[in-house]
Amino acid sequence: MFHFLKLEIDSFADRKKNETSQSSSIRSPLLRLPGKVAVITGGARGIGAGTAKLFAANGAHVVIADVLDDIGAALAVSIGGRYIHCDVTLESDVEAAVNLAVTWKGKIDIMFNNAGIPGRDGSITNLDPGDTNRILAVNLQGVLNGIKHAARSMIRTGTRGSIICAASSAAVMGGLGSHGYTASKGAVVAAARSSACELGEYGIRVNCISAHGVPSEMLVGAFRRILGRAEMAAEEVAEIVGERGSLVKGRGGKVEDVAYGAVFLASEEEAGFVTGHNLVIDGGYTCADGNMSFIYKED
Prior knowledge:
By secondary structure, the chain is α/β, with parallel strands linked by helices. Helix 4 (91-105) runs parallel beside helix 5. The longest helix has 29 residues, at 129-157. The chain has helices spanning 2-24, 46-57, 69-78, 91-105, 129-157, 179-199, 217-227, 234-244, 255-266, 268-271, and strands at 37-41, 61-66, 82-85, 110-113, 162-166, 205-211, 278-281. The chain contains 10 helices and 7 strands. GO terms for molecular function: oxidoreductase activity. Belongs to the short-chain dehydrogenases/reductases (SDR) family.
């Protein structure tokens, strides 16, 4: 009797061991990017940092590429990632960032071309060609460098990857950024679409994210400069956007809104049939005139 019971217990233990072994190879439903390898340019702070944290929380291995070495390296350590100094205007720097991911984990699955600068405000009649060239070098050529080297690596390893490019609501609607910035972001959307057309043959998806009203360092700095209020906080910027720059009244943008959008586009399971798309995260601001909502009210 006891011998039979021992055999049953041993058999049960073996079955549980096998079940545990099999379940460990199954993707956890709680992780949306398990085992994926990502490079994020401009990943040291703001939207890039928020996305790096969310990618890592969803199981991805993240390489942060930025020129802000101290905070970038600290963030990489905190999420178990890697950091590399990267000026996106230098093609060799972007190539090195992609190569770091491949050396570290053998591949790159996700490229988030997020690095960008705002450029100077002012009239088109006083446009400085030097400033415009600088904006285009970072915001457009930097993105093209990222698409190029991520695509090369993905094609070489046969990876059906996701390339995400940071555009802007300024690419959708005029009057939301400097002339140089607006031009650069509009070009990013066009470049992403043409790249999606070519790279789809390899199963590589290319999309944009156009954020609006997200109180990143860039936007808060612009509000402080334009309104002449050096002490203005991110919370106040979000409040202003929620009241004046969103159809969802009282709800401004958050870094996390964009990060979740990036996770969606990065995920093959969730966005595997999405490419050449510009995901606008703007509280509906660029799609309708909220000042006209009164016409829908009944007497």
